[in-house]
Write a structure and sequence with these properties.
single chain, 0% strand, mainly alpha
Length: 242
Amino acid sequence: MIQVFLKEVNSFLNSLIAYIVLSVFLVGVGLLVWVFPETSVLEWGYADLETLFSFGPYVLLFLLPAITMRTFAEEKKAGTLELLYTRPLTDWQVILGKYFSSLFLLLLALIPTLLYYYSLSELGNPPGNIDTAAVAGSYLGLFLLGSVFAAIGVFASSLTENQIVSFLVALFLCFILYSGFSSLATIDVLSSSGYVVQQLGILYHYNALSKGLIDSRNVIYFLTVIVLMLMLTKLVLSSRKW
């Protein structure tokens, strides 16, 4: 698994798309947090990172499918997936190696945004006047959200050898799972069971974590979706062997 992980990380970091994707994420989030008047924390005058955690998921919605679209699709197109299985590696070692490499790249994107927290903490009146618990919970929620998107992206990549198709499928599934259920809950026909429907989507659990109260039920939800997506990936890859 370590070999697959290192291979994926090195392959991504040696490609131009890695730096384009990470730069677009950091520049885009930076503009939203500090520059654009409608969302800038400097305009609102409150020492919080609500802008980052409100718009960050939509940026990750594109970032993670872009990172994961090549994980299996490129192997299939190049014909190296079968070669990979000639090595003493199990399906799960291959899947987890590729998945954890995506999480590593997610961390590379999120870690620089900690500078925003430090800056706001220093700009607070008095300095340090920021809800650290809410920020910590929101960062956990954002990481778990990205982890789910990464799992969906790996699954989508296992379905096709076309990276663009993989990106679009992952983008669609991520969007539906993130906000689709919340939208369905507002339909009149489902009004009686709207709360239950809403709980099936990511947005409900992400918002709960953003309040700073880390409930194990929300964490279990994210982990369950991740495991489900990786199991579906395993099922797709196993079917190719027959």
